[in-house]
């Protein structure tokens, strides 16, 4: 975690995360921003890893916890709570008492990017953090990628953990499911406001993916370990 939160490898992301903290919207004025890379969090024994894109400028970049303090997190943690994987349906700050059960949440890129769009180089620079997080989750059975960019990043990180990836690479789709041997990869539309406010992703749609994810988590599999 210390290596993540002290990283300054991407000058554009460093500048943006600090700019967002220096000029917050009125509703967050006076709050102390995290304004650093955001590590993953959850249950260290988790069998499920959820991978998002990146922290929101005034969400995780403000609170210091991924999917915390923004509308995407409101949607995600409410769903995880319904699924019995979160202790409460709301995540407002790092100190709010939220605990995850059998789940770990991380991002492909750890700093808030301008326009929510990291560059290919920023994805590549940050990938080692996701690779090592996957390796540390010794009970991992399922990865749920939120959006096409997280799907691609998850495939790349799993491959670096010596998980064989089919060729051609599996395509992202909402509800996609790919058996990769020790790990099953699922895809869902991202829980962003752009998707949830337009009805592209509804609570019922996400709940259905989580039901399938939970079934896959319970399936007997050989234990995941990086060699």
Structure description:
By secondary structure, the chain is α/β, with parallel strands linked by helices. It has a single domain (2-218), classed as 3-Layer(aba) Sandwich (Uracil-DNA Glycosylase, subunit E). It has helices at residues 2-5, 11-22, 60-63, 71-82, 120-136, 148-160, 193-196, 203-218, and strands spanning 41-42, 48-52, 103-107, 142-146, 177-179, 184-188. Helix 4 packs across helix 8.
Tag the structure with descriptive keywords.
globular; six-stranded mixed sheet; Uracil-DNA Glycosylase, subunit E; 6 strands; alpha/beta; 8 helices; 227 residues; 36% helix
For the record, the CATH architecture stands as 3-Layer(aba) Sandwich
Task: Look at the structure and give the mean pLDDT.
Answer: 95
Count of domain modules? 1
- Proportion in helices: 25-40%
CATH fold type: Uracil-DNA Glycosylase, subunit E
Spatial ordering of strands, largest sheet: 1-3-2-4-6-5
The CATH homologous superfamily is termed Uracil-DNA glycosylase-like domain
Compute the separation of the termini in Å.
22 Å
Order of helices and strands: HHEEHHEHEHEEHH
Globally, the shape reads globular
Number of strands: 6
Low-confidence residue ranges: none
Q: How would you briefly describe this protein structure?
A:
The protein is α/β, with parallel strands linked by helices.
Summarize the topology.
Blueprint: H1 2-5, H2 11-22, E1 41-42, E2 48-52, H3 60-63, H4 71-82, E3 103-107, H5 120-136, E4 142-146, H6 148-160, E5 177-179, E6 184-188, H7 193-196, H8 203-218
Parallel strand pairs: 2-3, 2-4, 4-6
Antiparallel strand pairs: 1-3, 5-6
């Amino acid at each position: 975690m210390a290596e993540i939160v002290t990283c300054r490898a991407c000058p554009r992301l460093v500048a943006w995360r600090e700019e967002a903290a220096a000029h917050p919207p009125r509703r967050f004025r006076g709050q102390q921003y995290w304004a650093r890379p955001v590590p993953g969090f959850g249950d260290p024994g988790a069998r499920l890893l959820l991978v998002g894109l990146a922290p929101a400028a005034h969400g995780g970049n403000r609170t210091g916890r991924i999917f915390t303090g923004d509308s995407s997190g409101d949607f995600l943690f409410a769903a995880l709570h319904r699924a019995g994987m979160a202790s409460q349906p709301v995540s407002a700050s790092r100190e709010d008492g939220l605990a995850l059960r059998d789940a770990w949440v991380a991002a492909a890129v750890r700093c808030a990017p301008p326009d929510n769009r990291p560059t290919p180089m920023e994805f590549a620079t940050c990938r080692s953090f996701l690779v090592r997080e996957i390796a540390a989750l010794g009970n991992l059975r399922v990865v749920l990628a939120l959006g096409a960019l997280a799907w691609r990043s998850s495939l790349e990180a799993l491959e670096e953990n010596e998980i064989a990836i089919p060729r051609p690479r599996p395509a992202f789709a909402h509800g996609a499911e790919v058996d990769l041997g020790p790990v099953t990869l699922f895809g869902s539309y991202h829980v962003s406001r752009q998707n949830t406010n337009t009805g592209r992703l509804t609570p019922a749609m996400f709940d259905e993916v989580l039901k399938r994810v939970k079934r896959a988590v319970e399936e007997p599999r050989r234990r995941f370990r990086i060699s």
